[in-house]
Amino acid sequence: MNDSQKLPDADEPKAGARAPRWLAAIAVLLLLGLAWLWFDTRTEVVDLRRELAGRLRETDSDSRDARAAARQAQESVRDAQVRIAQLESKLAESQSQQLALESLYQDLSRGRDEWVLAEVEQILAIASQQLQLAGNVQAALVALQTADARLARSERPPLIAVRKAMARDIERLKAAPNVDVLGLALRIDQVIAAVDALPLATDERAPAPQTSELRDEGFWTRLGSGILDELKQLVRVRNIEQPEAPLLTPTQAYFLRQNLRLRLLNARLALLDRNEAVLRADLEASNAWLTRYFDTRSRQVIAAGGTLKQVAASAISIELPSVAESLAAVRNFKSARDKASR
Predict the structure, then answer these.
(1) Is the pTM of this model over 0.90?
(2) Distance of alpha carbon 154 from alpha carbon 116, whole angstroms
(3) Distance (Å, rounded) from C-alpha 297 to C-alpha 224?
(4) How far apart are CA 256 and CA 320, in angstroms?
(5) What does the pLDDT look like over 1-34, one tens digit per residue?
(6) In this structure, are residues 308 and 191 in contact, taking their beta carbons and an 8 Å threshold?
(7) Which of 183, 206, 227, 236 has the fewest CB atoms inside 10 Å of its own CB, making it the most exposed?
């Protein structure tokens, strides 16, 4: 009985020893799983670290590139700002130069217009003087045509009104009758210049010298002929057509010629002033003096009297047109420009 009881006791420790082995195997497996898990996790962590390090390096490189690009961009911006500032400066300088050029052009244009207007006004003033003083329509017409051509060369549209006024004055001058006042004045001047050379009615004229023929005469005959010739020179008889002509002393003759010259000068002034009544009165008085005091048989006296009669017969009291409209247009245009410039 003892033996049978011992056998079961011997098997009991074997059954109890199996349980720790199983647990040990499980623990080993667990340890192995944990080790693999740790290794795998560590590998992943290492990979992650490597990947993270790579990405950090890439990020650092990108950051460096970005910083470099940012620096380049900043430099480019600074360069662009500098260039923009330079361009703005050049643009401002160009604008100021353009304004200066425009101002200079306007000044030059205004100065050219003023010079042209001053020249045209002077030409019109000369034309007005020719009409008022000399009545020379042709000279005034030429002056207006010259002024119109000068305005046409300037090619300024605002001057059209001035040219229209000048065109109307030109048409009036073309339609006006032409009186050659200047030519009549020159005729009177010719008579004035010949006053000192006109012979008086009382002037003594020496007879033409007689050529003595060579005669074979004696001494007493030649002596008697010489004495007779001398006696003939002492007394001279002449038939005067106007016996009422007074005898004039040299002083009176001098003042007569001077008074005649003054009469003719007054007639010339009346001609230029177109005072026909005074002109005719002075010419008639001068012609009467020529007939009374001067030798009417002389060709010079006859020519002077004929000239004075021709001048007196000319009609000078013709109402001539004026260039007042053209002058007024030029002056109004100048005053309008002056007000606009102010």
Answers:
(1) no
(2) 8
(3) 36
(4) 37
(5) 444 444 444 444 554 555 567 777 788 888 887 7
(6) yes
(7) 206
CB 248 within 8 Å of CB 202: yes
**Cα–Cα distance for residue pair 87/80, rounded to 1 Å:** 10
Average pLDDT rounded to a whole number, residues 146-163: 80
- Beta-bridge partner residues of 200: 294
Q: What pLDDT, on a 0 to 100 scale, did the predictor assign at position 72?
A: 83
Residues 334, 231 contacting (CB under 8 angstroms): no
pLDDT band at 237 (very low <50, low <70, confident <90, very high): low
Q: Which range has the top average pLDDT, 22-31, 42-51, 152-161, 257-266?
A: 257-266
Beta-carbon neighbour count of residue 213 at 10 Å? 5
Q: At what angle do helices 181-193 and 250-272 cross, to 10 degrees?
A: 170
Residue 339 in tokens: 């007000």
The tokens describing 50, both together, are 């490597």
Instruction: Give CA–CA dist 304/293, Å, rounded.
Output: 13
DSSP, collapsed to helix, strand or coil, labels residue 294 as strand
Taking the C-alpha atoms of residue 102 and residue 111, their distance in angstroms, rounded to an integer, is 14
